[in-house]
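Final report, Chapter 2: Outcomes

The project's central promise was a pipeline that accepts a single protein chain and returns its three-dimensional structure in a standardized token representation, suitable for archiving and comparison. That pipeline is now operational. To close this chapter, we reproduce one record exactly as it appears in the project archive, with the input sequence first and the structure output second.
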Amino acid sequence: MKHVVDANIKACESDKTGVFNIASGSRISVNQLVSIINEVMGKYIQPHYSDPVKGDIKHSVADISRAKTFGFEPDIDFKAELYETIQRTFRTSRLAFNRIYSC
């Protein structure tokens, strides 16, 4: 998430206009994602595989070249950022749950 904030600040400070992809600029497979989520969550969840469906995207990576024109350079530790996002989500969910049920 931090890189998104940094990118927005850089975009605001530049004279560039348009639509810009803000991402890591690299791919991660579903298997890698499951592995990282398992590690971050302390779980061992096996993915369930099914046959491909027409229209499935096999590979996808955001083209960040336009964002680089205003100085965006991704410096992303995906695992660390995912961990931070998950922790924040659980903390927020617990706070909301406690607020709702403390009445």
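Archive annotation: The domain at 2-101 is CATH 3.90.25.10 (UDP-galactose 4-epimerase; domain 1).
This record, like all others produced under the grant, will remain available to the consortium after the project formally closes.
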